[in-house]
Amino acid sequence: MLVVMKAQATPEEIQAVCEQIEQLGLRPHPLPGAQRTAIGITGNQGEIDRGNIEDLSGVAEVIQVSKPYKLVSREVKEEDTIIRFPGTNATIGGRDFAMIAGPCSIETREQAFAVAEEVASAGAQFFRGGAYKPRTSPYAFQGLGEEALKIMAEIRDKFGLRIVTEAIDNEALELVDKYADVIQIGARNMQNYSLLKAAGRKRKPVLLKRGIAATLEEFLMAAEYIMSEGNYQVILCERGVRTFADHTRNTLDLSIVPAVQRLSHLPIVVDPSHGTGKRNKVIPLGRAAVAVGCDGLIVEVHHQPDKALSDGMQSLYPEQYVQLMNEAAQIAAVLGRTVPRGIQITEGIASR
Amino acid sequence: MLVVMKAQATPEEIQAVCEQIEQLGLRPHPLPGAQRTAIGITGNQGEIDRGNIEDLSGVAEVIQVSKPYKLVSREVKEEDTIIRFPGTNATIGGRDFAMIAGPCSIETREQAFAVAEEVASAGAQFFRGGAYKPRTSPYAFQGLGEEALKIMAEIRDKFGLRIVTEAIDNEALELVDKYADVIQIGARNMQNYSLLKAAGRKRKPVLLKRGIAATLEEFLMAAEYIMSEGNYQVILCERGVRTFADHTRNTLDLSIVPAVQRLSHLPIVVDPSHGTGKRNKVIPLGRAAVAVGCDGLIVEVHHQPDKALSDGMQSLYPEQYVQLMNEAAQIAAVLGRTVPRGIQITEGIASR
Amino acid sequence: MLVVMKAQATPEEIQAVCEQIEQLGLRPHPLPGAQRTAIGITGNQGEIDRGNIEDLSGVAEVIQVSKPYKLVSREVKEEDTIIRFPGTNATIGGRDFAMIAGPCSIETREQAFAVAEEVASAGAQFFRGGAYKPRTSPYAFQGLGEEALKIMAEIRDKFGLRIVTEAIDNEALELVDKYADVIQIGARNMQNYSLLKAAGRKRKPVLLKRGIAATLEEFLMAAEYIMSEGNYQVILCERGVRTFADHTRNTLDLSIVPAVQRLSHLPIVVDPSHGTGKRNKVIPLGRAAVAVGCDGLIVEVHHQPDKALSDGMQSLYPEQYVQLMNEAAQIAAVLGRTVPRGIQITEGIASR
Amino acid sequence: MLVVMKAQATPEEIQAVCEQIEQLGLRPHPLPGAQRTAIGITGNQGEIDRGNIEDLSGVAEVIQVSKPYKLVSREVKEEDTIIRFPGTNATIGGRDFAMIAGPCSIETREQAFAVAEEVASAGAQFFRGGAYKPRTSPYAFQGLGEEALKIMAEIRDKFGLRIVTEAIDNEALELVDKYADVIQIGARNMQNYSLLKAAGRKRKPVLLKRGIAATLEEFLMAAEYIMSEGNYQVILCERGVRTFADHTRNTLDLSIVPAVQRLSHLPIVVDPSHGTGKRNKVIPLGRAAVAVGCDGLIVEVHHQPDKALSDGMQSLYPEQYVQLMNEAAQIAAVLGRTVPRGIQITEGIASR
């Protein structure tokens, strides 16, 4: 931490600040400058409450220096974390680019299977679908719950897709942990620390979405909450932040991808569907996300968006998903990464 | 809902949009204008998914019209809601201005009693203190939990102050409901719908803090979640929002007070402590909050801020709280409201 | 400036950074800490380009310390600046609270005189009116130009009101300087440095509006531009900033008032009309601005808002202005300040 | 425009609103809905001031419908605008992707030539360099002015690069128009309407940077100002907006590219240098900008960034620019666009 004194601070004031620092069990380092004196502080393990110092006489401002995160940091773990899925060659964070696709909500077994078949055949290692929907209105469709989880478990068996779905509370977490392969924590719950800790006690990977107004530090600290409980398999996800801009539902902040990669070893994927909220912008921003260097995309696809019970306006048509896959594959290649090819769907399955 | 067609939209395109609207069981009203045609939609009960229409050929944009909230709305209940506390004459939302004061966290019995005595004697009907602290870092002080709740229950008995404290999850909610008088839902949990619904099933008043990036509509919808479960005693709380401005921790948005009062019958209080994050700004913004016409203030007070385990830098010294009370009382009078006088503390208590 | 090294930075890397700092003619002060080493820098007169250091091997981040402003700073001038107007007892920044009122635009001589009479009789020392309007659309009413300035000069003579009006470019600046008493620089031009410098070469006070997304530092640096040319009579004006919040046109950031007062000796006034954009919020926020401790209000008043050529929706009716004056006077008194009483308008004038 | 009445609005109130609309010379269309009545308005040519209606009794809100822009709109001109440069095959907005590169500021003839040679040989059709620098501090380097313009004119002759440089005021505009090929209007001046109109009276293409907090509508309206004066050669430029996010200097909003392309026929380029403010993020975001489908990149390159007089920390090293060119070329190819190859620099020139 650094204390910046006012230009006209007296030697007595500087002395008093140094003594206060020592009383906190820390070591002050006065740096007399041309305009003013700054006082460096060393010896602190964690964060210091600036309140102890900021209001002392002669103090202009107090600047926090050491960052609070530990386990998420590259300073603790240099090499990239790669999330692996036993029994498959699907990974997140490695050379292979991850494609996570599916409907916003699981509405019916038929709808879920129809979309799953489309995305599996177009190329996706992961299937996303909402069983529990955090909706702004209590009167809107809230999801099918466990029934949806069972449908997705069937989809895993039939199409070999890993299941990614959101847990909105501790109760849902138990069921998601039971049926799914990746536990998603939504943007609205990014600072629901109770839920983060519970997810940290599970052993399945956690996909953590960035809060709508989360700074990079808060985002990484939310991951730190999960890791501090022993679950080191965290996948970060940029899904757009809230700004004054009104031409998209959120403003997709792609610059956080290299920023995260500089500070942390955790993989990061991008959600261009929620990041834009408009179907006609999902493909361009999806391409951009691949180009910026993220580890995967999570996109909403629906075979009949016009009939979707939620987020229809941002869901891709299957043929649009195929286009995105093709363009993503070519752009990923420029960065030396590979995008999964579609699997062969047998007649038997196709006829279902 | 209103559909705005492009200037060069053809009659066929307009016709197609009208048919799609009818297929949704709604009634289209084409409005041929000078520049373009707009199509009004009536007959919808709830929200319509714009996705169904926005991508039709010839459509320029789709504008949502009817607001989704019901129970929170003045259109449903015209007169102001006043929260009453049996066995006391304390109210929130009526002519009396409510003062809620106390430390950020309950640290020890001594600290809690010392602050309680200060605020009770200076004038406060409510005591706030954190038992469960949602901290950005998992390594920071997380609160004393039930022990803190027991201390606050004692404070209610001794000083006659009603207790306001935060519930961070369902487990904490049960305990807060058992010991406290007002259940606080923090800003980070404003869209933790599972927690909102659980609070809605309690019978104690809920103080709902605005999320750091919540729009007025999202804020009111969070209250709607609580009310939709049957608990109509909701107190809204503005505590600052996140903006680009870096001279305060958050930007206190006082304009939401008259905005809420126009749309809703619920009371709204303001938190200038979190709203600014800096002690030297709490009094000026506290005065401003009274002047804008809110129903109460919730402020952090600590008898030894320099030793506070959390938020020390934004806690008022007891003498500053007295100053705020005095200025608030004079400003409230201008608006025809009364601020509570301090209670007499007997020697007996004072000597503790 | 402070350089924060990575935890695993080598002694060689730390050494290399120190050498680079010395090459820049500055003095490095390594501070070995528990987690990492930080390097304080002294000897710089102005700002240092972080680019020189941030990308050196082993550097985690670079933190700017010394603030760039000089003339605006309290460190240079301790006591408050009070703007005086020769031949009147009107001041801005002193004990007297300043009321600046008038229509958004000067539309006709009749309209201007009608509004001027209303605000003069209700109590105002300053008349505001747009001669040059910066409108978002090139097709919207752009103001009457010099004709409006002449009308306002007449208003000064008749009602003894000082004239405040905006200069949108150097050409308009010459005319505004000729006819008006205070040169207003609008929010859109807060970083139009060419215009700021030109205003700095004038000898009339300048009312500088905060840019819609200006930080406190940028705001003060814009004032520094004016002062650096020799004009020290600068009045700052908060008029709302752009945020995600959509219930008002802008979000009025009242916390900047105490923040400015802490750093600078310049007076600061508040514009609740543009700050909210809605008539029904001007009075509550106007009251709040007085309570927060600003030096004056600038408000839009129109005798027939429904017929206003611009900003009608945020203009007060004369009777609303009277109410605001009365409430402002009572609240200002709480802060030990006085609000001007209305002047007596003779029949003679009233009949014009 | 659409007027939304309150649910309990009376027939008389609805009638009164309709009459007010008719008094404004417009036509009201009442739409009785399930919950409330909405009133559509037709007959308006330009924008209507909502103030006339919003405060009438029974009105819940007023919604603006018709967009104010004309000349920038695809509704007026369907096909993409392509900017051509006589005597070259350089274009902006067509199939060829435009690369605009150079130093932040022109510091010396040697520096400018050194950078120009690098970018010309790596592949660029345009050279950018600041002659007039809008700096936050009046004490910072402000640019060489006309001397810099003369140096750039030489660079055009020697390397065949078209010159792009900023005009900060009308005076500078005359000189920029005389020496350069593209007149740049900076973000700080995006709403300096006086300057926009003056640029609109020139016949050279104008590169208009998005203001730091400009909405899509304001951005397009600024272009409308230029076009309304007769200059239809406008190039839009996204350069990052201001948000709460603190890991980059600005938040690059790539979603505005498809948003602009949907509404307007004007070309749009992206500036990843100012958009991120950090060298290590320029290449990833530059790649993303190409992938999102913009028409060109404008990047800062310096042969000795550590010695740059401005923005050194965001300037690419020449070899980094070569890498960006190569990656941009491959990604552009995926979108069916071509990126210019580097020109051959003769020994003669290279030896300079």
From TrEMBL, chains A, B, C, D:
<dbReference type="InterPro" id="IPR006218">
    <property type="entry name" value="DAHP1/KDSA"/>
</dbReference>
<dbReference type="Pfam" id="PF00793">
    <property type="entry name" value="DAHP_synth_1"/>
</dbReference>
<keyword id="KW-0808">Transferase</keyword>
<protein>
    <submittedName>
        <fullName>3-deoxy-7-phosphoheptulonate synthase</fullName>
        <ecNumber>2.5.1.54</ecNumber>
    </submittedName>
</protein>
<dbReference type="InterPro" id="IPR052899">
    <property type="entry name" value="Class-I_DAHP_synthase"/>
</dbReference>
<feature type="domain" description="DAHP synthase ferredoxin-like">
    <location>
        <begin position="1"/>
        <end position="67"/>
    </location>
</feature>
<feature type="domain" description="DAHP synthetase I/KDSA">
    <location>
        <begin position="91"/>
        <end position="326"/>
    </location>
</feature>
<dbReference type="InterPro" id="IPR041071">
    <property type="entry name" value="DAHP_snth_FXD"/>
</dbReference>
<dbReference type="GO" id="GO:0016832">
    <property type="term" value="F:aldehyde-lyase activity"/>
</dbReference>
<dbReference type="InterPro" id="IPR013785">
    <property type="entry name" value="Aldolase_TIM"/>
</dbReference>
<dbReference type="InterPro" id="IPR006268">
    <property type="entry name" value="DAHP_syn_2"/>
</dbReference>
<dbReference type="Pfam" id="PF18152">
    <property type="entry name" value="DAHP_snth_FXD"/>
</dbReference>
<dbReference type="GO" id="GO:0009073">
    <property type="term" value="P:aromatic amino acid family biosynthetic process"/>
</dbReference>
<dbReference type="GO" id="GO:0003849">
    <property type="term" value="F:3-deoxy-7-phosphoheptulonate synthase activity"/>
</dbReference>
